[in-house]
Amino acid sequence: MRTVEISEEPIRLGQFLKLAQLAEDGGHAKVLIEDGEVHVNGSVELRRGAQLRHGDIVVVNGDEVRISVRP
Known about the structure:
The protein is of the alpha+beta class. It has helices at about 15-20, 25-35, and strands at about 1-5, 10, 40, 45, 50, 55-60, 65-70. α1 (about 15-20) packs across α2.
């Protein structure tokens, strides 16, 4: 599992997928979410605007990423 730092929380799921390089762009993020391929803290997340916070874990195609807030 890798960690991706964000400057402030919350961050929207669609934005985070791009930041963490789990999606190529916003359109790709939208498709991943709509297809049910994105899990947040163990549950499928279908809302592109879902608010993510420090400690949340996002999984796409087996790639696990933990969110950390930059101090």
